[in-house]
């Protein structure tokens, strides 16, 4: 049975109950998420052939320090970096290293800043130089999956409506949805209830209620959906080595739909791709 609880009364740990936040809480999330979005905007000019993901990691750390924010991933469950950098067939949780990016790579950069106790969690894809059409199309499909998932958010719907919207579109475009990872509640905690699956049926999952805050972060593969985690315990890759892409927003359920907290202030929600109205 699903339990909902006012966030102010909830313990500072994931108990399985779904927190309902206030408008004041939404303001806190907005501040944290906009700092994350500003960092992701800045990275659009930094990601290019020859740049290392270690350099990206340093930038994310220093940007956070300059703005009074702590990267949430740093020392999280033993993770040693301020960012996740997932290149080509890496699905998620790729670790920064000194190997330079190459022309034609695609990379997901996942940033979470903690600001005044709130977690601003978002990620975007970046093309490295000129990429092949198949890679560009995968990014386009994945971003559209995110938009369709967000459009399904409204009070009274179920979390399965998000998954159904994403899965239906991805599979119609001959892509596959990763099952091993999902979106999650976020706010005062980095990872909280509920899990937001990116596949499923509209009549499945907890009911969406005003005040819920969570991420939607579909991981879409050009090949099959199966993944494996490497020996480092973090890096997840496609088993068939097909390209993978992911975009992520943090959203809050409102009385009429949802607010997207992590929208780019510079209009760079899909950097390197043509504008949607272009």
Automatic annotation (TrEMBL):
Residues where a divalent metal cation 1 binds: 110, 121, 248
Pfam families: Peptidase_M24
Cited CDD domains: MetAP1
GO molecular function annotations of the record: initiator methionyl aminopeptidase activity
Keyword vocabulary terms for this entry: Aminopeptidase, Hydrolase, Metal-binding, Protease
Gene3D superfamilies: Creatinase/methionine aminopeptidase superfamily
Reactions the enzyme catalyzes: Release of N-terminal amino acids, preferentially methionine, from peptides and arylamides
InterPro entries in the record: Creatinase/aminopeptidase-like, Pept_M24, Pept_M24_MAP, Pept_M24A_MAP1
Family: Belongs to the peptidase M24A family. Methionine aminopeptidase type 1 subfamily.
Enzyme Commission identifier(s): 3.4.11.18
Function, as annotated: Removes the N-terminal methionine from nascent proteins. The N-terminal methionine is often cleaved when the second residue in the primary sequence is small and uncharged (Met-Ala-, Cys, Gly, Pro, Ser, Thr, or Val). Requires deformylation of the N(alpha)-formylated initiator methionine before it can be hydrolyzed.
The organism of origin for this protein: Rhizobium oryzicola
Binding site for a divalent metal cation 2: 121, 184, 217, 248
Protein name: Methionine aminopeptidase
Residues that coordinate or bind substrate: 93, 191
Cofactor(s) listed: Co(2+); Zn(2+); Mn(2+); Fe(2+)
Listed SUPFAM superfamilies: Creatinase/aminopeptidase
Top-level class of the enzyme under EC nomenclature: hydrolase
Domain called Peptidase M24: residue spans: 28-254
Positions of transmembrane segments: none
Cofactor binding: number and manner: Binds 2 divalent metal cations per subunit. Has a high-affinity and a low affinity metal-binding site. The true nature of the physiological cofactor is under debate. The enzyme is active with cobalt, zinc, manganese or divalent iron ions. Most likely, methionine aminopeptidases function as mononuclear Fe(2+)-metalloproteases under physiological conditions, and the catalytically relevant metal-binding site has been assigned to the histidine-containing high-affinity site.
Subunit structure of this chain's protein: Monomer.
Superkingdom of the source species: Bacteria
